[in-house]
Q: What sequence folds into this?
């Protein structure tokens, strides 16, 4: 199993929810207001007067065979509008309770 952490501009909220539904990903944790800035080209998303936009983030734990299809869907979403931004990070899950 893998944990996939996805950080994205709030403009992508419905797209991420739809992607999970279409892929049959039921379990996730969602943070609706996340501040940050992309490491290379991302604009700050700070919820301030200067940088008013905000990010959200979600994490889901999925079987190994769903990781690549999930990442491919995220890549496609990012290609549609690079300025909006979405990134994913994957961790191994060694144990759960």
A:
């Amino acid at each position: 199993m893998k944990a996939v952490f996805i950080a994205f501009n709030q403009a992508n909220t419905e797209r991420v929810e739809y992607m999970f539904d279409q892929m049959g990903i039921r379990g996730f944790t969602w943070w609706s207001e996340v501040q940050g800035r992309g490491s290379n080209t991302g604009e700050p998303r700070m919820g301030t007067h200067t940088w008013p936009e905000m990010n959200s983030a979600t994490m889901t734990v999925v079987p190994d065979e769903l990781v690549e299809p999930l990442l491919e869907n995220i890549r496609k979403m990012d290609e549609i509008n690079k300025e909006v931004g979405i990134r994913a990070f994957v961790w191994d899950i060694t144990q759960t309770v």
